Amino acid sequence: MRNRRTSSLLAVGIAATFVSALTPATTFAASQSSAAKDALRQFTQQKPRWRQCDTGSPATYQCATLKVPLDYSDPGGRKIDIAVSRLRASNAGERRGVLLLNPGGPGGPGLNLPVAPELELPEEVRRQYDLIGFDPRGVGQSSPVSCGLTDGEQNFERPYRAETFAKDVEWARTVADKCRAKGGDMLRHLTTRNTARDMDVIRAVLGEKKISYLGFSYGTYLGAVYTQMFSRRTDRFVLDSATDPARIWRGVLGLSCAPTPVRGRATPSSTAAKRSATGPGIRCTAISRPTSSRVPSGSRAASPRQR
Predict the structure, then answer these.
(1) Among 18, 109, 179, 294, which one is least packed by beta carbons within 10 Å?
(2) Distance between CA 137 and CA 134 in Å, rounded?
């Protein structure tokens, strides 16, 4: 009996020791989280001034401009604009929440997506969701960054060829130098994770506990990163034409797509082949590159958590 009582006392003592040891760390983590929320309150509690986006659009299609920190580690520093649009659910009684939209890119503007004719959403979706478009940071009407490139410099379709490799490297350096000169300190803050943080500010400003999301191409990667960072604030996420996170973005542009006949259908044009790497009649193969043109040995593609 004495041994049992001694064992019980020892167990209680050990547990109390662990609890007392862990409590300061837990308290510190909680205080950090609370401090972060307080620092972002000026952004999450801002009141958007909704207005009709333009005279030719429906009155229910409204736009607003939000403020977000350029650097989320310094929320008291420089602020930038995020342009947001909203097309309200057509049936308030059936409304489920908001559906954020992203067209991909990276760098594709999405402000007009709620009224874009090519976004063929079912009527059921339009009845239940406010459709929310936005231009990601640095794009469109969201504090846009321009590198001042010529038309020729904007052509990034440069698959590896030995005879043009040196010229293509020089082009890449020119683009990088121009963007560094024009973009200044802003470029390093135009990241997927910061765009996901902007999305969460949009969620908070709209007064929603959770968001639903529809993203295409690169937008699938953005959506995946958001679910990692804000897993408790996600409702229904649709990731269309998903990209491989292990190939962001070094390997993605190294695909060579060629049109091929499928079941008697006409062969797609070369233009259509460029637009879609997954549509009917498109065959894609990876382009092999020499080791010297790749990242240094020992480097690896970063996971979504690292960007």
Answers:
(1) 18
(2) 9
The answer to whether 126 and 99 are in contact (CB under 8 A) is: no
Segments in the chain forming alpha helices (H): 2-44, 123-128, 165-183, 192-205, 218-229, 270-275
Structure tokens at 231: 């897993």
User: Are the CB atoms for 70 and 198 separated by under 8 Å?
Assistant: no
HSE of 75, CA atoms in CB hemisphere, 13 A: 15
DSSP character at residue 266: P
| pLDDT 10s digits, 254-297 | 554 444 443 433 333 333 333 333 333 334 434 333 333 332 23
Closest CA to 114 of 65, 62, 66: 62
Residue 174 to residue 155: CA distance in whole angstroms: 13
Phi, then psi, of 147 in degrees rounded to 5: -95, -5
Strand (E) or helix (H) holding 85: strand 79-87
With b for 16 or more beta-carbon neighbours within 10 A and e for fewer, the 231-261 pattern comes to eebbeebebeebbebeebeebeebeebebee
Cα four-point dihedral sign 52, 57, 59, 60: negative
65-114 pLDDT, tens digit each: 999 999 999 999 999 999 999 999 999 999 999 999 999 988 899 999 99
